[in-house]
Task: inverse folding
């Protein structure tokens, strides 16, 4: 077809540039390439979420779990008995926050970065106290 003007593609200008393939890149995904989009890239359109790079997960523990684990914490020297109650440093155990689910049966002196109101109330009601590491 070297000698012919159009190389077998009919009128002038056919089979040139991106028009011959239906557009450049992802053009036509919502129109003439819709069947391709549905079969090969079904998640191409729509929202897909975002996770903030500055957000860090918070390690939490409930007062009920803490109350159940007191014996094992004492056995492993992760908690100590004092006159006021049992002292536990949750920051050393890797916890950031104390939550209020469960019951407290003995006085606990808990050192933790933050705690919920209900957790602090339950511990104080049992005769203990919640302290921040800076105190």
Result:
């Amino acid at each position: 077809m070297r000698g012919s003007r159009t190389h077998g593609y009919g009128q002038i200008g056919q089979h040139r540039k991106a028009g011959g393939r239906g557009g450049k890149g992802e053009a036509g995904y919502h129109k003439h390439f819709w069947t391709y989009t549905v079969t090969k890239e079904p998640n191409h359109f729509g929202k897909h979420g975002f996770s903030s790079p500055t957000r860090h997960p918070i390690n939490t523990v409930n007062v009920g779990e803490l109350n159940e684990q007191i014996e094992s914490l004492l056995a492993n020297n992760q908690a100590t008995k004092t006159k006021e109650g049992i002292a536990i440093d949750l920051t050393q155990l890797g916890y950031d926050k104390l939550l209020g689910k469960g019951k407290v049966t003995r006085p606990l002196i808990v050192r933790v970065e933050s705690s919920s109101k209900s957790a602090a109330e339950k511990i104080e009601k049992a005769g203990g106290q919640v302290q921040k590491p800076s105190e």
The longest strand covers residues 86-89. The two ends are 89 Å apart (CA to CA). Residues 117-125 form the longest helix (9 residues).
